[in-house]
Amino acid sequence: MRNVPTDLLRAFVTVIDLKGYTRAGEQLGRAQPTISLQIKRLQELIGVSLFDRDGGAGHLTEAGEICASYARRILAQHDEMLQRLNSKGGGGRLKIGIPNDYADQYLPAFLQRADAQDTRFDVMSDVSVNLLRDFREGMLDIVLAMTPDALGEGALTTWRERLTWVGATGQDLPGDGPLRLVAYPEGCLYRRTMLSMLQRQGRGFDIVYTTSSLTSIEAALRAGFGVTTLARRLVPQGLEALEPSDTLPALPDVTTGVYLSARVQTRTVRRLAGVLADVVAG
Questions:
Q1: Which of 212, 228, 261, 266 is most buried by a 10 A CB count?
Q2: Which of these three, 52, 71, 87, is where a domain ends?
Q3: What pTM, to 2 d.p., does this model score?
Q4: Are residues 174 and 112 located together in one domain of the fold?
Q5: What does the CA dihedral 149, 155, 160, 165 come to, rounded to 10 degrees?
Q6: Are 155 and 259 part of one and the same domain?
Q7: Same domain, 125 and 145
Q8: Is residue 107 domain-shared with residue 188, that is, in the same domain?
Q9: Does residue 1 belong to any structural domain of this protein?
Q10: Where are the beta strands (DSSP E) in 169-253?
Q11: 64 in helix, strand or coil?
Q12: Residue 233 maps to which CATH number?
């Protein structure tokens, strides 16, 4: 009796979903030649060709279609078994990443609606670029993150997010001279966007306060210490969304998405990712 290792099936399904060996390798943390060898080994074990030679990784043979259907069911059952056993035995947790400002507004509602008695999870807050890095490295299972335009691999669902300048209510902005900015640390998409648009407009600026804490950013803004950029629907109470002007350039939209690791795509985990998307995207 021949046995097919689940890692070969996972490589096969990931190649199909991402339409390429290189992308599959990046998702699974393996080099492209390793993925190619895994697919070759899988074909040798089952004795059929899985991909149409003329169509590349995106085109399956009839046998490939049959194999993919069974592989998905096998992996779903396999991953669900491990998830349930780990959660029962205390050996595993689902790791969720969410940006600071989204966590402040939506995390309580997500935790209330999650209703995952058999699944334990840890939540980490950080800027999107760090969350996506940890997601790619396999350190996070579900991530909510912003990207400028192009989406990273593994996006379960996405939507457009409108950005706005934010400051204290009734704050007077200088007509000339540098604009005082309150910002998240380097790498934050909010920070990169507002600096890019100011530079494009030729407007001088001065970053007067940098912090990874949303609470600290709010305090600095309320004190009139400067202005910043946030998602428009996440503007905290007591602060004001500032419209574009000669002083403040218009800001582009960004893409927000919920990302789900291929390693943990059980029914329970996909449901939790869907709950997160529903809570945040509305």
A1: 228
A2: 87
A3: 0.66
A4: no
A5: -70
A6: yes
A7: yes
A8: no
A9: no
A10: 179-183, 205-210, 228-231, 239-242
A11: helix
A12: 3.40.190.10
| Of the candidates 72, 90, 241, the residue with the CA atom closest to the CA atom of residue 167 | 241
Cα separation of 114 and 122, whole Å?
Answer: 13
Domain containing residue 45? 6-87
Buried b (16+ CB within 10 A) or exposed e, 125-145: bbbbbbbbbbbbeeebbbbbb
One-letter amino acid for residue 210 of the chain = T
Give the separation between CA 11 and CA 39, rounded to whole angstroms: 7
Q: Is residue 181 part of a domain?
A: yes
Per-residue pLDDT tens digits of the chain, which is 282 residues long: 678 888 898 888 888 887 888 878 777 777 888 888 999 999 998 999 988 876 566 688 888 889 988 888 888 787 777 666 655 544 457 889 999 889 988 988 988 888 755 567 788 888 898 898 888 888 888 999 999 876 656 688 889 999 999 999 888 887 777 899 999 988 899 999 999 999 998 889 999 999 988 889 999 999 999 999 999 999 998 999 999 988 899 999 999 999 988 777 777 788 888 999 999 987
Instruction: For 157-178, give one letter per residue: b (16+ CB within 10 A) or e.
Output: beeebebbbbbbeebebeeeee
Residues 33 and 110 in one domain: no
Selection from 210, 7, 224 nearest residue 127 by Cα: 210
